[in-house]
Write a structure and sequence with these properties.
Blueprint: H1 2-41, H2 52-76, H3 81-115, H4 118-121
Helix pairs in contact: 1-3, 2-3
Domain Terpene synthase metal-binding: 31-92
Protein name: Terpene synthase metal-binding domain-containing protein
Keywords: Metal-binding
Amino acid sequence: MKNFNFSLSRLKSNTLFLYFNFSLFYRLLIEYNCLYKICCSWDVNRLDELPEYMRLCFLVVYNEVNSIGRDVLKTKNINMIPFLKKSVLETLSQHKQNIVRCSAYVVRLANDLATSPVKQLF
């Protein structure tokens, strides 16, 4: 009976762990997609669509890219902003792949915890 209660307790904690991480994962993907769309449009007027913690990040990237682009345009007469924007979008795409990969690790860890015998945990 003791092992059954322990297994039931472990199942509950793993279920909560999975629920929390899946909800975090989906929220992160939704927020990421919102950030990606705003970066694609490069429109600072859409800032209110972002979660509060992402607004400053977007503004910093937006201002830095435009500042670098302005400096290059003044000194070399080359418009670099489209290339810098493309680099930002490529970086965001790589981060999305990392988010998805990380969520797969969380699912695998939870599965390993749920299926491992009690002896292996101690």
